[in-house]
Amino acid sequence: MQVSLPTKLRQSWMRWLALGLLTSLLSACGYNQIQVKDEAVKAAWSEVVNQYQRRADLVPNLVNTVKGYATHEQTTLTDVINARAKATSITVTPETLNDPEAFKRFQQAQGELSGALSRLMAVSENYPNLKADGLFRDLQSQLEGTENRITVARNRYIQAVQDYNVYVRQFPNNLTAKMFGYGPKPNFTVENEKAISTAPAVKF
User: Fold this and answer.
1) Residue-wise over 12-36: b if at least 16 C-beta within 10 A, else e?
2) H helix intervals, the chain
3) Do residues 41 and 186 touch, judged by C-beta distance below 8 A?
4) Between 31-69 and 100-124, two packed helices, what is the crossing angle to 10 degrees?
């Protein structure tokens, strides 16, 4: 039996109406806002990772410069090298944001590198010639600037995650979030903040 044109038009209209209703329901249940907030968290996280990578890139030159003056500080230099290797060996993906254990490992590795760099900066106080070296002073300045950028990026990430987590826990958004697999994301812990929020001391 051949379907008449009006029937075809009616079926097409019904499909569009159903699609519009579904879109409206998803929007009313917070789906679109979850997407916006999830993307904001990812963008903030990318900046955190970018700044940590910037710091890691400074370490080899810094270590080599110190090594030229402080040959007796091999243990401190080795600690920095090992901490950098550990921090850069962790594969960071968008899934890291949804895996509390992976996120914790990332935090710990960055905290260890922060501690090792702080000890390295303290060692430089014992070597006047090192402190007077132009390259070393430039690297110290870059490190200090990068640590400040890390702090800013980390704070923005903390705020983005807090905004996202509050939203996906609210009713009825929590139902939509659960339906589509958007759970709360891990954030920096208080212990980790103490370990990495203090930039290595830069004294001249």
Assistant:
1) eeeeeeeeeeeeeebeebbbeebee
2) 5-28, 31-69, 74-89, 100-124, 128-132, 134-169, 173-179, 190-196
3) no
4) 30
Flag whether 69 is in a domain: yes
Angle between helices 100-124 and 74-89 (to 10 degrees): 160
| DSSP secondary structure string for all residues of 107-125 | HHHHHHHHHHHHHHHHHHT
- 78-89 per-residue burial string, b: 16 or more CB within 10 A, e: under 16: ebbeebbebbbe
- What CATH number corresponds to the domain at position 131? 1.20.1440.20
> Phi/psi at 80 (nearest 5 deg)?
-65, -45
User: What mean pLDDT, rounded, does the chain reach?
Assistant: 84
Can you give the residue range of the structural domain that contains 103? 30-190
Give the number of domains in the chain: 1
Residue 46 lies in a domain: yes
Residue 180: which of 13, 35, 10 has the closest Cα? Answer: 35
* Whole-prediction pTM: 0.78
End-to-end CA distance of the chain: 91
Establish if 52 belongs to a structural domain: yes
Q: Render pLDDT for 133-188 as a digit per residue (tens, 0 to 9).
A: 999 999 999 999 999 999 999 999 999 999 999 999 998 889 889 988 999 999 98
Per the domain annotation, does 199 fall within a domain?
no
